[in-house]
Amino acid sequence: MPRNQPTARQRRLGSELRKMREAAGLTARFAAELIGTTPIQMSQVEAGKAGVSEARLRRMASHYACFDEALISALVNMAGERGKGWWEEYRGSLAHGALDLAELEYHATYMRTLQAAYIPGLLQTEDYTRALLAYAVPVRPQADLDALVSFRQRRREVLGQEPARAFDAVIHESALRTRVADRKIAREQLSFALEQSERPNVTVRVIPFDVDGFGGAGNSMLYVGGPVPKLDTVQIDAVHGSFWMDAESQLAKYQTLLDKAVGSALPVEESRDFIHRLAQEL
Questions:
Q1: How far is residue 13's CA from residue 9's CA, in Å, rounded to a whole number?
Q2: Are 192 and 125 in contact, with CB atoms under 8 Å apart?
Q3: Which of 7, 56, 67, 83 has the fewest CB atoms found within 10 Å of its own CB?
Q4: Cβ-contact 183, 126 below 8 angstroms
Q5: How far is CA 148 from the centre of its chain?
C-alpha cells in the first residue's frame, strides 16, 4: 500500500532514483519495463510513496548506467532503513517538517549553519527556545508549545551522538545580542553556547557588527552533509515554513556562501572571547 505521508528522506530517495533515470534519458514507462514493474509502481517509488528493495535498486542503477558505487550504496542504505527514530514519538502532534529536520540531522555526516537572527536551534537553551516559540502568531496552545520545546531539546542530543559529526556554526553578532526574553535568559544562552563550543565536534564562530565586507546577513541556513556529496541538503527557514534544496548547483552556491561567512568571522578563540565578553555585559 502506498505511503500517505512519505518522509523527506523517503522522498529524497525517490527523487535521486528519478534523477538517475532522467540522466540516462529513459522514460518512467520504459524503465518500469526494464525492471519488471508497472509505471504506477515506478511513479510511487520515485515519489517516495513506495519502498524499493536492494536488488531492484541495483538493477535500476545498472539499467541507468550509474556506476557511482558510493552513491548506490548510500541509496541502498536509505532504502533498507527500517527503524523508527525518536522523532516518531511526536508524529501526530508536530508538523511533518519538524520530524523531517530531526531525521535529517540524525543521519548527517556533518552540519554547517549560518544564523544572523537567532541562536542556532541545536545550541539553544530550553528557556530561549520557549521564549522564541511563544512569540509566534497565532499563540500556540500550551500543550503544543511544550511539545515543540521538548522536541528541540531532544534534537540537541545529536551533538553527542556517535559517531560524532562536526557541527560548524557561524553566528552574527545581531543574533547574540537579540534578547528573545530577558537578561538572565540571554546570559544563560550565551554561556550555554560557549559550553557547547567546548565539544570537540562543535565549532562556533562570530561575525561582529564592525567587520568589513559582509553582505550575507540574509543568508541564514543549515547545510547538512550526506554520506556522499550528492546527498547533501540545504534547509532554510521562512515565515511560512522551511525550504529544502538538493540540486547540485544549489548545494555549490550555499557551500560558497558558508565559506564566505567563515571568511568574515573571527577565529574560533577570538569568537569564544567575544561571546564571553557579551555575557559579562548582561
A1: 6
A2: yes
A3: 83
A4: no
A5: 17
Percent of the chain scoring above 70 in pLDDT: 99
As to burial, measured by CB atoms within 10 angstroms (0-12 exposed, 13-18 middle, 19+ buried), residue 164 is: middle
Give me Rg for the CA atoms of the chain.
21
* H/E element, 237: strand 233-238
* Cross-strand bridge partners of residue 221: 114
- Report the candidate in 130, 144, 143 with the shortest Cα–Cα distance to residue 188: 130
The residue assigned the cell 515565515 is 239
The single residue listed with the C-alpha cell 540537541 is 156
What pLDDT is attached to residue 168? 98
Q: What CA–CA distance (Å, rounded) separates 111 from 168?
A: 6
Distance CA 13, CA 71 (A): 11
The residues pairing with 109 across neighbouring beta strands, listed in sequence order, are none
Q: How far apart are CA 28 and CA 22, in angstroms?
A: 9
pLDDT in tens, 152-169: 999 999 999 999 999 999
Q: Is the pTM of this model over 0.85?
A: yes
pLDDT digits (tens, 9 = 90+) for 57-101: 999 999 999 999 999 999 999 999 877 899 999 999 999 999 999
Q: Which residues have C-beta within 8 Å of that of residue 279, sequence separation ≥ 6?
A: 187, 190, 191, 194
Let me know: does 274 contact 197? Beta carbons within 8 Å: no
What are the b/e assignments for 114-135, b being 16+ CB within 10 Å?
bbbebbbbbbbbebbbbbbbee
CA 138, CA 261: separation in Å to the nearest integer?
Answer: 34
Which residue type sits at 206? V
